[in-house]
Amino acid sequence: MSGSNQKVTPFLLFQGQQAEEAMNLYTSLFMDSEIKNILYQEDGSVLHATFSIKGQNIMCIDSAIKHEFTFTPAISLFVECDSIDEIQHLFQSLSESGDVLMPLGELPGMEKFGWVQDSFGVSWQLSLPSID
């Protein structure tokens, strides 16, 4: 991560060669996002990759080991959206084939808030701050 002042970076551990598919989905949904680099194993799985969403770097891999654990909503990615259209689009797209953990609605201090778990198991808290 040379050239970045970021000190703490989310790291997503996927199983079953899902990392590249997840990165492609995320970078297609979020504006100001890109896949920065991917290193592959001989079998085509992701050895290490970095992508960014709204300027936040996120690293990921495909685990070479089958683990008994997966993602949990206890840890989630919190996204501050810029518009009602953006939050509605992200909520719909990320919950497709996933789960709605908290329906899109109003919360104190927020015009809209929703919490979803995507088809890969990654949890997303989506927020549209109140304009006051």
Outline:
Helices cover 17% and strands 42% of the residues. The chain has 132 residues and is α/β, with parallel strands linked by helices.
Commentary on this structure:
By secondary structure, the protein is α/β, with parallel strands linked by helices. The protein folds into two domains: about 10-60, Signal recognition particle alu RNA binding heterodimer, srp9/1 (2-Layer Sandwich), CATH 3.30.720.100; about 75-130, Signal recognition particle alu RNA binding heterodimer, srp9/1 (2-Layer Sandwich). It has two helices and eight strands. The protein has helices at about 20-30, 85-95, and strands at about 10-15, 35-40, 45-55, 55-60, 75-80, 100-105, 110-115, 125-130. The strands form two sheets. A four-stranded mixed sheet has the order 1-4-3-2, with helices on one face. A four-stranded mixed sheet has the order 5-8-7-6, with helices on one face. A hairpin with a 2-residue loop joins strand 6 (about 100-105) and strand 7. The longest helix is centred in the C-terminal third of the chain and has 12 residues, at about 85-95. It is globular.
